[in-house]
């Protein structure tokens, strides 16, 4: 039975309805807490849904916000600033998804629970909230990351009382969330299991693997054996453990077992549901999380109703407990839920913070300025130049690096190329591409690129990244100049010793290289676990290293024009 209590939060009295039971259409009940003002009057509600546990979210009332790299930063306290939401005259309703926390039912796979779409559960949850005497019938949603993705899934179901959503830091294309360019990313493991700065899901014994449910034991055993033939997987102890004991890591097991894009991910892709959404949507994300920014822009373009795209400044990780962006959120909801004409819809739909110049650019669409894709060529002596190399391979001999597996070394080999210092500011906004002509002596490797803005004093900031597993080099029909797409639906082994062109997608970014600065691009097949960027991410936010020794030859001559293709805005040029 629900418990009603009053608490003091920094001098503010808050009424809490603890352990509400919210019925779903199949009889399963979800658990929820509701926070509101102490005067007995109905208010609009902001709903937050995730598997991270409503009790963890309550720490927003007692834990000062932490920024990375604080050891107290916990990536799962994401439901929003409870006290602020109550102060702004909303009811904050925080619920545990099916199969997690104190809720009933089973949770099978991601964005799916016991055969029930999580969007369907969100519909039932929102409509129940709207009918309560403490709610005035108007509902929005709140929360970052998983909570943000749940907002899109809910909106696609069109619950009548959901008036608008405000999504900060969501993740959408779930394949691109877990395999960057086909390279496995470990962050989803942390979110599920509670590693590297995340408490993880509020674990119950009712969370199950979709793969275990789908395949008979002997067939699944054969599939696991095949997956372990990948030397990258076989060389990583945690993955060997996951694959042999799937019931201990059910969601992570499903991700590891599905290394190619396809139906398994598509049914969990909120972007495919976006055309069903007709309520107002505000999408917000900070730079430095390019893989998620890519999906955010794709979602924005697919939405049909009133919409906003708000790209904020670096660094990539917001505070936990999550408190940022609330000013914008309340403007949005005050307009769409409370009917206050505050002018928010008179402002441009797209707002982009440009690093370097630290200016905000606004427009009606992304990218917010007219751009022209312009190449910067890899040249001898680690130079980047607007002019292509004229010498052939026999004179412009390739660069190269050898990477031993991390089982025998802790050194990640990185090769780099840099422009001369820019003589005047140079602005770039958009996606990009790297065309790398390379020869490797193995059937596969990773290509990991990181672009930096390097200041005269040597201080640098990451601008964007790109990832491509060599066997995923195939491009699809969406590809245009500076904007490559890979289907990731099959792996094509590389013929050792053959020179191939690899086109790596560089995630969206916005940066002005100031006078005296340089652009530096780094290439490796792994990544350092600690540097000026990675220290801002949770410890597990790295990619699966290559499990075999690989020699890479990088050709950049007249016959093999390795280059970056970058989105220079009108008036900017490589020469500065």
TrEMBL record:
GO molecular function terms noted in the UniProt entry: dipeptidyl-peptidase activity
Gene3D superfamilies referenced in this protein's UniProt entry, alphabetically: alpha-amino acid ester hydrolase ( Helical cap domain), alpha/beta hydrolase, Galactose-binding domain-like
Xaa-Pro dipeptidyl-peptidase C-terminal domain residues: 330-565
SUPFAM superfamilies reported in the protein's UniProt record: alpha/beta-Hydrolases, Galactose-binding domain-like
InterPro entries: AB_hydrolase_fold, CocE/Ser_esterase, Galactose-bd-like_sf, Xaa-Pro-like_dom, Xaa-Pro_dipept_C, Xaa-Pro_dipeptidyl-ppase/CocE
Hydrolase found in the keyword field: yes
Protein's name in the database: X-Pro dipeptidyl-peptidase domain protein
């Amino acid at each position: 039975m629900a418990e009603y209590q009053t608490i003091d939060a920094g001098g503010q009295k808050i009424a809490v309805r603890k352990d509400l039971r919210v019925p779903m259409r199949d009889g399963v009940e979800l658990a929820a807490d509701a926070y509101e003002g102490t005067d007995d009057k109905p208010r609009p509600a902001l709903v937050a849904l995730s598997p991270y546990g409503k009790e963890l979210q309550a720490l927003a009332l007692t834990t000062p916000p932490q920024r990375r790299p604080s050891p107290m930063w916990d990536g799962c306290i994401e439901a929003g600033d409870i006290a602020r939401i109550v102060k702004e005259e909303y009811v904050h309703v925080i619920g545990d998804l099916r199969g997690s926390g104190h809720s009933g039912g089973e949770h099978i796979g991601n964005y799916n629970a016991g055969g029930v779409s999580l969007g369907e559960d969100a519909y039932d949850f929102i409509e129940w909230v709207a009918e309560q005497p403490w709610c005035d019938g108007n509902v929005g949603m709140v929360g970052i990351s998983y909570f943000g993705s749940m907002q899109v899934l809910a909106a696609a179901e069109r619950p009548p009382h959901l008036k608008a959503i405000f999504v900060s830091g969501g993740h959408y294309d779930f394949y691109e969330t877990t395999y960057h360019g086909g390279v496995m990313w470990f962050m989803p493991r942390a979110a599920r299991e509670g590693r590297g700065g995340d408490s993880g899901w509020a674990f119950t014994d009712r969370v199950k693997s979709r793969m275990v449910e789908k395949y008979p034991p002997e067939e699944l055993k054969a599939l696991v054996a095949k997956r372990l033939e990948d030397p990258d997987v076989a060389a990583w102890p945690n993955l060997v453990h996951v694959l042999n004991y799937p019931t201990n890591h059910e969601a992570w097991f499903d991700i590891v077992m599905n290394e190619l894009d396809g139906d398994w991910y598509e049914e969990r892709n909120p972007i495919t549901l976006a055309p069903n959404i007709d309520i107002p949507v505000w999408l917000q994300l900070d730079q430095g999380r390019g893989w998620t920014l890519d999906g955010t822009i794709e979602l924005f373009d697919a939405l049909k109703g009133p919409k906003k795209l708000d790209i904020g400044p670096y660094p990539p990780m917001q505070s936990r407990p999550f408190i940022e962006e609330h000013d914008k959120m309340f403007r949005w909801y005050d307009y769409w839920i409370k009917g206050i004409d505050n002018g928010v819809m008179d402002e441009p739909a797209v707002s982009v913070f440009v690093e370097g110049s630290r200016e905000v650019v606004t427009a009606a669409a992304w990218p917010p300025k007219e751009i022209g894709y312009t190449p910067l060529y890899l040249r001898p002596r680690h130079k980047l130049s607007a002019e292509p190399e004229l010498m052939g391979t026999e004179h412009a001999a390739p660069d190269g690096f050898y990477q031993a597996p991390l089982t025998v070394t802790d050194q990640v080999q990185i090769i780099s190329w840099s422009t001369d210092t820019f003589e005047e500011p140079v602005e770039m906004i958009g996606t990009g591409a790297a065309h790398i002509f390379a020869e490797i002596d193995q059937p596969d490797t990773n290509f990991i690129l990181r672009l930096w803005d390097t200041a005269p004093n040597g201080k640098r900031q990451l601008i964007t990244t790109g990832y491509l597993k060599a066997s995923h080099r195939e491009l699809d029909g969406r590809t245009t100049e500076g904007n490559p797409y890979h289907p990731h639906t099959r792996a094509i082994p590389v013929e050792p010793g053959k020179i191939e062109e690899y086109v790596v997608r560089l995630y969206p970014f916005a940066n002005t290289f100031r006078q005296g600065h340089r652009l530096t691009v780094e290439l490796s097949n792994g990544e350092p676990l600690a540097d000026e960027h990675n220290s801002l991410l949770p410890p597990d936010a790295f990619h699966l290293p290559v499990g075999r020794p690989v020699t890479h030859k990088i050709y950049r001559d007249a016959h093999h024009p390795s280059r970056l293709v970058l989105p220079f805005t009108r008036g900017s040029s490589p020469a500065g």
